[in-house]
Write a structure and sequence with these properties.
alpha/beta, TIM Barrel, eight-stranded mixed beta sheet, 8 helices, globular, binds iron/sulfur cluster
């Protein structure tokens, strides 16, 4: 398998079979987050293009389609960078839906292309959208997510997320990664979450090997208190247990996650 990996044990999604429609040797992303487990961004871009042909993903999915229902809770677009940069994202989602109609489809996105109405339409094909939001203002956004250029504006991303929510019937999860640089932003982040109205807020801190230190449990509990009263499920990485998984190919997982599950 070159483009599918896992299933991995995701604290947010359960047994998650990864689909990497970017699959470049080095990471391809419009951000360069201080906590990224894939290291510094080598291919920094905000342009969409076809990185992996739809037929190649289709071939790999068809090889294991019979076993997916038994081994996998969710099929997730993720991998060596930002999956919305794949111009054939929507087309591949359609292929997966046809081949695995019983398994939900999710995506982990950095939210940068929520500003693009076409991308928002493609994201509506997913059952679960896990959208990154780590900052309440542009300076914090630039410190934590280090976007490609100053044309990428947090305000526009938040507006895009809000518009997406209005037309999206699936499960929208906001994923907020807290590190030293944004640990005092909990109050404003909770206010922004309340305005967007996600189904779930995932409060995270980087526990996998990466360049940033995780916040301790007491710090995360302090942040979580700001989200009390929000009309959404609020989960914290320290509270969740990982599910058991049977991995197809450990090398492909380690390449994309730095650890084997
Ligand atoms: S958006 Fe994701 S892949 Fe891109 S730099 Fe940040 S953590 Fe890494």
């Amino acid at each position: 398998m070159r483009f599918l990996y896992g299933p991995v044990a995701s604290w947010r999604l359960g047994r998650s079979l990864g689909v990497d429609i970017i699959s470049t040797k080095e990471k391809t992303c419009s951000f360069d987050c201080v906590y990224c487990q894939l290291g510094r961004t080598v291919n920094k871009t905000a342009e969409r293009e076809v990185y992996v042909k739809t037929e190649e993903i289709e071939r790999e999915i068809s090889e294991i389609a019979d076993t997916i229902a038994d081994t996998t809770d969710v099929i997730t677009f993720a991998g060596m960078g930002e999956p919305t940069l794949g111009a054939n994202l929507g087309e591949i989602a359609d292929v997966i839906r046809r081949q695995c109609p019983k398994t939900p489809i999710a995506i982990l996105t950095n939210s940068a292309l929520m500003t693009d109405a076409g991308v928002r339409e493609e994201l509506k094909k997913m059952d679960v959208v896990v959208a990154k939001l780590d900052a309440p203002d542009q300076p914090t956004f630039e410190r934590v997510n280090r976007p490609l250029n100053e044309e990428i504006k947090l305000d526009a991303i938040i507006k895009g997320l809000t518009e997406f929510r209005e037309g999206y019937k699936g499960r929208l999860c906001l994923q907020m990664m807290f590190v030293e640089e944004n640990k005092e932003s909990g109050v404003e982040m909770a206010r922004i979450a309340a305005a967007i109205q996600p189904d779930e807020v995932q409060l995270n801190t980087p526990l996998r090997p990466c360049p940033a230190n995780p916040l301790p449990p007491e710090e995360m509990e302090r942040i979580q208190k700001h989200f009390k009263g929000l009309n959404a499920a609020v989960i914290s990485v320290y509270d969740k247990m990982k599910p058991e998984v049977r991995v197809i190919d450990k090398t492909e997982v380690i390449k994309r996650r730095g650890v084997e599950d």
